[in-house]
Every structure is written in structure tokens, then in C-alpha cells.
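re: ur question from yesterday

yeah so i grabbed the chain u mentioned. its 314 aa long if i counted rite. heres the sequnce exactly as i have it in my notes:
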Amino acid sequence: MSIPIRPSRRRFLQVLGAAGGALALGPFERLARATPEPEMAIARWGPDPLPADRIPAAARTLTARALSALGGMERFVSKGDVIWVKPNIGWNRAPELAACTNPQVVATLTRLCYEAGAKTVKVGDHTCHEARQCYPNSGIEAAAKEAGAEIVYLDPNRFRDVDLGGERLKSWPLYPEILETDLVINVPIAKHHGLARATLAMKNYMGVIGGRRGAWHQDLARCLVDVTRYMKPRLTVLDAVRVLTDNGPQGGDPDDVKTLGVVAAGTDVVAIDAFGAELLGHDPRRFDSIRLGEEAGLGRGDYRSLPLEEMTVS
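ran it thru and got these C-alpha cells back, copy pasting raw so excuse formatting
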């Protein structure tokens, strides 16, 4: 039996209040506010290469600058919100091996959420390797804790069937505690994947699901679109400070890691995936998940057609 997961009461009231506020504005004030906010922001380190000893500080700066250009975390977080920051913590790998999200990206997002008024920030993922190894060895647990996050080890017994109503997936086990938060911030790392060619934002949602995840590989693109549609992403932050160029998703060889010094943030998950695919040297139009996501109305693969802010950070 599938258990319907409803949005939190706060999220419902926020949407209702926003709609009512827009109706209350006069016609000239509505027109003045019609200038579109950025839907995507890209922060790049430059012009000189990013040295290894500056990567942690650069990751913090790049993340903060990308969020600021997008309108600030206050655009997404309200006072009293409970936030789930969803990085990729899937693998028992050190940060230098670029198999998991950069810990300083996670820590910076945590800090920004609290500064915007969040009540609680939770960090967790359904790992592939043993979570008790992945969380500390990725560096994410310590960095997120230092920033004030609550670290959540997902209990495999707590996943519950949810009605997804997808094209490929009618229902699937998801983690209720993630769905009940006010905002899920999807924080993937851009990296190679042996089957999918790249692990990016839509694929990072595999960390909220339970069940036989390997079965998704029979029709991976449609499964990713189905779960992404259900999750209704509002904020995605792509970590490309370091990227894994080969032997993904686990990695393990330093020779497969390239330092790019990039963080992108956006409201359009398809655009973020298209940008990430380009960073890894791929043509986004050749990714089924990007094409199907666009067809499903989840976003636009042509990310440069969006209101876009780009900046260089040094």
C-alpha cells in the first residue's frame, strides 16, 4: 500500500501567501516586479588555476557567490523552515577523489540556510558503500556538523511506498523524513558514470529512494524524470570544484580527478544537468534524462536561454 506524502503545512502556507500577495498588488507594482530573477548562476574560479591548498576556501566562496547571484538563500528559505541538504555521500572516498560532494559546499549551504532563518538543517543520503564509512571519510559529516547541521543516517526500515504517478514508476519507496521538510536542496557533484555517462542533479535523487535501486537501470532516464517530477526541485547546487572524469561513480584514482573550480546554482534542474554534462565534455542533447526532463516540463536544456548570472571568483 502506498502512503501519500503531503507537503508540510508551512510550505502550503508559503505558496498560498505568495499567490495572495501577488493578487493584492496594484497593476503598476506587479509590472515593476515582473523583471525575472536569475534562474541560474555560475561561479568560476579564475583566471589562474585553483591550487590544491586553496580548494576548501574556494569551495566556500564559490558557493556563497553563486547563491548570492541567484538572489540569496532568503529567496528559498523562510524563518522556521526545516531544510534537507541532499549531497552525494554515496561512496567511501576522501574529498580529493571527487566521488562525493565537496564538504565545504555542503557546509556553506548549511550556514546560508541558518542565516536565512532556518530552524533546522538536516544532511543525509542513502549511500551505496557503508554509511558509517561514507559520512566521515567524505569529509561531509564533520564539515556539516561544524556548520550546525543535524547529520541523519537513513534507516533502511523507514522507507515507505509513495505514489509517484510517473510514466515509468507508479510508486516507489522514498524516505519520509526528507519529503516532510520545507525545502530539499539537491547538491550533486559532477562526475563520470560508467552506465549513465554522468552523475548529475536528477540522478542524485536516487539517494532519496529505497527498494531495488539497481532495477532503475533498465529504464534509468524515465525513472529519474519520474522521481524528479515528484520531488519538484526548487534549488539545485552543482559542485564542480573537483570533477571525476573517469571510472565513476566510485572513482578512487587521483588521476581521474580534475579541478575545475566551478559551482552552479539554479531553479531549473534540467538546465543544471545540461551545464554539468557540458563541463564533463558531453553534448547535453545526447542525454535521455535531459531530453525527457525537458519534454516533461521540468526545465530547459538550453541553459543559456535562462536569466543567467556568471561571475569569476579569485
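noticed a couple things. The longest strand covers residues 235-244. also Residues 9-24 form the longest helix (16 residues).
anyway ttyl
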